[in-house]
Amino acid sequence: MQILTTDPVKEPFKILYRRCVLDLQTGEQTFTDVPCANLEQVLGGFGRSFQHLAKRPVERAYCDENPLIINTGLLTGSSAMTGMRTYFSAYSPLKQSRKGLPAAIWSAGSGKFGAKFKWTGLDELILEHRSNQPVYLVISHTEQGPQVAVKSAEHLCGLTTHDKIMTLQQQYENAHFAAIGPAGENWQQVLMGAIALSTENQLRSGEDKQRFAGRGGMGSMMGYKNVLALVAQAPDQKKPLTDAVKKVNFNVVKGGGAARLQPIKRGGGGGTWAAYDVMQPFHAVPLNNFRPQGNDLPERMLRENVEKEYALESSACWRCGITCHNYVYEKKQDGTRGEFLAKFDYEPLNLLSTNIGVHDPGKGARLIQACDLMGMDAISLGVTLAYLLAWNERHPDQPLLGGVRFGDYEKIHELILETGRGNCPDIGMGSMRLSQQTGETDYAYHVKGLEIAAYQPETNPGYIWAIAGGHMTMGTYGMLIREGKTDVDSWVDAITRDKLQIVGFDMIGLCKFFDITKGIGTQMVVDCLHSDFNLEVTQEDLKAAVRRAFILGLIMEKRQGYTMDEYALPAEVAKKPNPHIKVPDISNLEYIEQLSQRVWAVFKPEMEQVEKELLERD
């Protein structure tokens, strides 16, 4: 980026980002230094890409008019801890309104690809149309500036995500990679394709330890474009660590919500996996399609029980002190590590084990691994499988897909592989479409067409207003269990003010664990922007930019045909209250109706104002 001002609020046009538009059909490339129109575009991520998508009327996800936008945030590749994020944006093949119009969405992932992409000198790559042949793209740093080369990907066709990455590593030194799996290649039958991002651990060990940009089917969009992989090749450009950023990084590790994610030996809870320990006392760990039974079955997947049989390693992303995830290995007789199985994060772990009736950690790990290698979003896959299993349990005389049942590991494992290969579109199309096909939609656990994460909707009505995945773009998932908030006033204030701020991390290039409780409108981010870029912004400036970007997300949902009745929790939640979940009832119809009226009373006037400003600017 070219930064020619210290005031990105009043003079955003003096900050220019380097964009390449690539027409995949003709091969034509256009490089431009684009002046920013506002602080959201300066920050980057979906704050920039959504403003581009808002100008595109798109009626079908798979069409020439729908671009795939790859970009980073201002702090991606910086010295700020967690600054590694890459963003992929488009109109989603998976998330759509009942009118059949696709919703704009983005997906974010860590790994080192984002930093390498930024260090090529490119800030944004827009892929137009689609290639006639399978290709991969090489984005490289040169003395003349960033270059993009289109290469034949015939040798990559059909390979898993991991095998694509490891094949490309043999060809390109000093590079990192983003790749789709067989699921993305089978984009017609799989709408939940994910994009795998390479990690230092993966390239060093040769084990499938990649990270994922999973939500909304961006891997399927990449497959539709006939782009199987991206290579970002550039020398590392590490800035000297200033005292200001050093202090920020120390605070990130010790506070900001990250301390509880640290390994147990450091006084933390052992990563995101610790959510089991927090929610199980309330019997709020999702079980058998989000219907906890008030028993101890979820406890079989507690860390303390898993480590009796398997070797565990707490791990962090490159240059990050937040050790939030865990690698699971077979345990040899002498207690040492054997074969690598999978990476355990809370959502994939729950949704591909406990919530589908699998209570063996080794089998759960194999299901996660199969999902990762096929290149699918673990959340959408797990929730759709859970719906299928629930249908079969309720309809033993009309079973689907061989009558697979909760806990049937072998059949579930095969279904995952067959879905990724394009042979099981009933699952690959997601839970909304499958439930519409069966005619029983009440127990399909999605909101607005996007499967919910592994937090009971009974504990989180904030899911309703999230714009790209409930737990990542509306930070209300801990309000009931962790904070004990039940009054409507607190929930209205959280949804319309503080808790939407979490979405700002998908603009600026930072992971949400930087400060998961507050978003990016903090002094820590202010200090990083001043130290690394000499930019003068306030906490209020940042909060306002995040809010405008969030409001634009709601406006774009409205434009794509969403009606008020689609802003709702899965119907089963209110129709069949679960007596086993030991939390106050804040998901009944009366409560949700009151909450909705008050939330929209705040959002609607702002939406009208922002939409008016957009029309005037255009």
TrEMBL record:
<dbReference type="GO" id="GO:0051539">
    <property type="term" value="F:4 iron, 4 sulfur cluster binding"/>
</dbReference>
<dbReference type="InterPro" id="IPR036503">
    <property type="entry name" value="Ald_Fedxn_OxRdtase_N_sf"/>
</dbReference>
<dbReference type="InterPro" id="IPR051919">
    <property type="entry name" value="W-dependent_AOR"/>
</dbReference>
<dbReference type="InterPro" id="IPR013984">
    <property type="entry name" value="Ald_Fedxn_OxRdtase_dom2"/>
</dbReference>
<dbReference type="Pfam" id="PF02730">
    <property type="entry name" value="AFOR_N"/>
</dbReference>
<keyword id="KW-0479">Metal-binding</keyword>
<protein>
    <submittedName>
        <fullName>Aldehyde:ferredoxin oxidoreductase</fullName>
    </submittedName>
</protein>
<dbReference type="InterPro" id="IPR036021">
    <property type="entry name" value="Tungsten_al_ferr_oxy-like_C"/>
</dbReference>
<keyword id="KW-0411">Iron-sulfur</keyword>
<keyword id="KW-0004">4Fe-4S</keyword>
<dbReference type="GO" id="GO:0016625">
    <property type="term" value="F:oxidoreductase activity, acting on the aldehyde or oxo group of donors, iron-sulfur protein as acceptor"/>
</dbReference>
<keyword id="KW-0408">Iron</keyword>
<feature type="domain" description="Aldehyde ferredoxin oxidoreductase N-terminal">
    <location>
        <begin position="17"/>
        <end position="237"/>
    </location>
</feature>
<dbReference type="InterPro" id="IPR013983">
    <property type="entry name" value="Ald_Fedxn_OxRdtase_N"/>
</dbReference>
<dbReference type="GO" id="GO:0046872">
    <property type="term" value="F:metal ion binding"/>
</dbReference>
<keyword id="KW-0560">Oxidoreductase</keyword>
<dbReference type="InterPro" id="IPR001203">
    <property type="entry name" value="OxRdtase_Ald_Fedxn_C"/>
</dbReference>
<comment type="similarity">
    <text>Belongs to the AOR/FOR family.</text>
</comment>
<dbReference type="Pfam" id="PF01314">
    <property type="entry name" value="AFOR_C"/>
</dbReference>
<dbReference type="InterPro" id="IPR013985">
    <property type="entry name" value="Ald_Fedxn_OxRdtase_dom3"/>
</dbReference>
<dbReference type="GO" id="GO:0009055">
    <property type="term" value="F:electron transfer activity"/>
</dbReference>
